[in-house]
Amino acid sequence: MFGLFNKTQQPTTQKFDLWKGNAIVTDEICPDRRGRVKFRGSWWFAQCVTGINVSPGVRVNVIGRNEMTLLVEMPKMMDL
To answer: Could you tell me if 60 and 71 are in contact, meaning their C-beta atoms sit under 8 angstroms apart?
Structure first.
């Protein structure tokens, strides 16, 4: 009916990255422990992939996720 269950039809896929974008650090991120960031309206644990301290209020780039921890890095100069 209406082609909804046509077995030859390929499913549509949308291309988007859920785990990339900008976040604001809310609790300091240190090399030896996770901090917290606000990302897309929610608070997440975060770890900096370059192993540096990141202070609260700093904008970071989210580049991925490892289980329930976002992986972040400092923005490049052209991203500012």
So the answer is: no
Give 5-33 pLDDT, tens digit per residue: 555 555 444 445 778 999 999 999 999 99
- 9 alpha carbon, distance to own chain's centre: 33
Residues contacting residue 71 through CB under 8 Å, at least 6 positions apart: 46, 47, 49, 62, 63, 64, 65
Please tell me whether the overall predicted TM-score, pTM, comes out greater than 0.90 for this model: no
Nearest CA among 41, 40, 34, 43 for reference residue 71: 34
Burial 18-32 (b: 16+ CB within 10 A, else e): eeeeebebebebeee
Cα of 38 vs its chain's centroid, Å? 10
What confidence tens digit (pLDDT) does each residue in 53-75 have? 999 999 999 999 999 999 999 99
Q: For residue 49, what are the contacts with CB-CB under 8 A and spacing of at least 6? A: 63, 71, 72, 73
